[in-house]
Design a protein that fits this description.
The chain is mostly helical and 287 residues long. 70% of the residues lie in helices and 1% in strands. It is built from 15 helices and 2 strands. It has a two-stranded antiparallel sheet with strand order 1-2. The longest helix has 29 residues, at 253-281.
Length: 287
């Protein structure tokens, strides 16, 4: 068992724990030429600059909106899909639908973004339908008010099928005798869903929700970068895209590391707080 676990343990040690030491550059004026040990220490200067940065509150607002919308709309989607898929009695059709739903997970964001670009462009399929309904063409890809809807919808379409696998696995662990007893009592499908299925899934739901909240300020860089442009940048610039531009493109490694530490601190506080709240209210927690 230890040998089987070794590759996973090594992955976390090499790619998760060892890089934590590199966070010291947030307190330095780090450059690639001076390295970790010879860079000048500047204390909390990068954190102070981060909070004084004129657009910091805008980026924080965009990141929070993106994270909250993703949780509000994206988190229930695989659960709802798994519940309805579980009600399909034709096994062959169920497997076909499941395969069809999780195939987009294996597509890159370049392909997914290209599909949405073609569908939502001014001369795309969606606008053609709107024109047929007597509604003028809508610029979904440049109007700031449509940005979150487009990006989050694309993320749900790409990942909902893959995310529901966890719930489908949890559904197989429910004791069939509970459903048999409900059938004897005359319970219908909806009553069985709300009285048996969802309560039995509650431990998995709570754990996955807490883990999702831990990534509240995170965004898929490829996902956002594909849809953000100068016309919607005011709502589309989030922490991860800003770190990409300032860190990798402009070489501000120390400053962007400070932003990363800020994000991590907020995530830890939220996970610990909500874990304690969940433990007291539902009895379920991740530790």
């Amino acid at each position: 068992m230890l040998l089987i676990a070794l590759p996973g343990v090594l992955h976390f040690i090499i790619f998760k724990y060892i890089p934590i030491a590199g966070n010291i550059i947030a307190f330095q004026n780090f450059t690639l030429f001076t390295g970790f040990f010879n860079s000048k220490w500047v204390g909390l200067d990068h954190f102070i600059y981060m909070f004084q940065y004129p657009e910091f509150l805008i980026i924080l607002r965009n990141s929070l909106k993106f994270g909250l919308y993703s949780i509000f709309f994206g988190f229930p989607a695989p659960l709802i899909l798994a519940l309805f898929l579980n009600e399909i009695r034709l096994v062959a059709f169920k497997r076909w639908v499941q395969t069809l739903l999780y195939l987009p997970h294996f597509l890159s964001w370049i392909i997914v973004g290209g599909i949405f670009l073609e569908i939502l462009s001014l001369d795309g399929v969606f606008n053609a339908i709107l024109k047929g309904m007597g509604i003028g063409p809508v610029s979904f890809l440049t109007e700031p008010r449509y940005f979150f809807g487009v990006v989050i919808t694309g993320g749900i379409w790409k990942e909902v099928g893959w995310s529901m696998i966890i719930y489908l696995a949890a559904l197989t662990g429910i004791n069939p005798s509970l459903y048999e007893a409900a059938n004897i009592d005359g319970a219908g499908r909806w009553r069985k869903m709300f009285s048996i299925t969802i309560p039995c899934l509650m431990p998995a739901i709570v754990v996955l929700l807490l883990l999702r909240i831990g990534h509240l300020l995170d965004a898929n860089v490829e996902q956002v970068l594909f849809f953000v442009n100068p016309l919607n940048k005011e709502v589309g610039e989030v922490f991860d895209t800003y770190i990409y531009r300032a860190g990798l493109l402009s070489g501000l490694y120390s400053y962007t590391t400070a932003i990363g530490i800020f994000k991590a601190a907020i995530s830890v506080i939220m996970v610990v707080s909500l874990n304690q709240l969940s433990k007291k209210t539902t009895g379920e927690s991740i530790y």
